[in-house]
Amino acid sequence: MNARAAAISLAAAALLLLHADYFDHIADDAYISLRYLDHWLRGEGLVFNPGERVMGYSNFLWIVLLAPLGALGIPLPVAAQGLGLTLTVACLALVSNELVRRHGQVWPAVAAMGWLVASGPFALWAQAGLEGPLFGLLLAGAAIAATRIAERTSPARLATLTACLVAATWTRPEGAAYAVVIAAWLAWQQRRREAAIGLVAAAAAWLAFASFAFLYYGDALPNTYYAKQLPLSLAVIERGALFHWAYIKGQYGATLLALGLFGVTAGRSTRAPGWLCVAMIAAFALYYLRIGGDALVYHRMWAPMQPLLALAFGDAVMQLVRLATRHGLPAVSFALPACALPLLAVPHSLQGFELAYLRGDDERIRSLATLGRELHEHAAPGTRLAANVIGAVGFYSRAPIVDMLGLTDRQIAKRGQRELGTPGHESHDGAYVLDQQPDLLLVGIPRASRRRIDVNEAFRPAFPSDRDLLADPRLLRGYDFAHWTLSDGRHVALFARRGFQGPERLRVGGAQPSSSP
């Protein structure tokens, strides 16, 4: 690695770690994957509930990479956060080294590192426990390998490209779509043989994974696809556009300005390497519109795009440096103002609705983790839960769970027609949930409170799954409103099946909710 690039990336890594630590977030969804891994390490299979083969994750390679760390005895949440941060630092080094190699100057690398350090989505999701850092690294690696092949092909560069594409496809199913974009770009660069090899490798990887999924789970696609997929409609696209706009607005337009700056400085040079990054970002933008966006805080799905944005931004800054040189001006006169552009994204991390929501979300996750530990310690073996938010409470309780949103439940995921709502939270089948006779029902998005809240405050239907339950008369006939008192004195409101013999921490009492949704 170039010494200058190493110094720049080390400085950026220090700042990025401080930014990530400011968030100090691990997503509830991360615990879903960790529960699959925990069961796998215990010899119970790669399953959410032992004995039920449902593929409620879409990050296979991420789980596989965490397995050795878990086998060494490292707590899985710590392993997930640590691996995410490690891969993020590797991504910083990869981008910095490539820009110094490509341009022979440090300004592009400084600009790119500034972009990544200032990005709230990049920093938060670096240690949130999900596969974003791995996916972002692989996409950046594939883009860099492809641009190097366009310069001069070699077996090593082709091997790197195919390895990145295969790994990206195994990390996220849509990874194969980026292989199509890269293959098209390589063909445009008169590298048709390399384009075909990369495309075939990604297709083979996708087929291999689909075959494994079908043989092990009975479905070629993750169950999450069925739970989240909505028919293409104008309403879905509009919702995706609104989520795009929320990201752009939160960054004060920095992303659009960076892409516009690249477009202007690249001019008519359609073979400039940054155009591949722009094409991959455009492909993501279309995919994001198609699925109708994503509800996780700080624009989770935009996080893997940040290294590609940084590469294009670095190229644009280099063009400004060249422009300054041609006019006999010092490079700093053009480069320094451009490098200040990422500062527009800084307020996004420090203030606003998303940060306030994140802090509340963290508190809920900690409460559910505590509840999960106490269920594991005090509830009778086999106590069955039903919940919308299944990550932390599921991981720590190790209890069987009915996922009311269907991510890990095939019946709910494939129920059929659903209304447009919060992305990923539209699936529901209340009758099926009650058919399973769960012992405890966690409705809405549970949180712990210092006081015992009443039923009307507790039962605020957050999703269609909650409205299903409230509309079913069996809820009132078969369940009592109750509270679980945590060891710190806080209370979590829930519903307990009538006749269920819970521990002393479970106190039944209070009025029942209205029978109308």
Describe this structure in words.
This protein has helices at 3-23, 28-41, 60-71, 76-103, 107-118, 120-124, 132-151, 155-171, 175-188, 192-217, 223-228, 234-250, 254-266, 274-291, 306-326, 332-339, 346-350, 353-378, 391-397, 410-413, 430-435, 455-458, 464-471, 473-478, and strands at 385-387, 401-403, 440-442, 448-449, 479-485, 491-497, 506-508. It is mainly α. It has two domains: 3-346, no CATH class; 355-508, no CATH class. Strands 1, 2, 3, 4, 5, 6 and 7 form a seven-stranded mixed beta sheet that branches. The radius of gyration is 24 Å and the shape is elongated. The N and C termini lie far apart (61 Å).
Topology:
Layout: H1 3-23, H2 28-41, H3 60-71, H4 76-103, H5 107-118, H6 120-124, H7 132-151, H8 155-171, H9 175-188, H10 192-217, H11 223-228, H12 234-250, H13 254-266, H14 274-291, H15 306-326, H16 332-339, H17 346-350, H18 353-378, E1 385-387, H19 391-397, E2 401-403, H20 410-413, H21 430-435, E3 440-442, E4 448-449, H22 455-458, H23 464-471, H24 473-478, E5 479-485, E6 491-497, E7 506-508
Helix pairs in contact: 1-4, 1-5, 2-3, 2-19, 4-5, 4-7, 4-15, 5-15, 7-8, 7-9, 7-15, 8-9, 8-10, 9-10, 9-14, 12-14, 13-15, 14-15, 15-16, 18-19
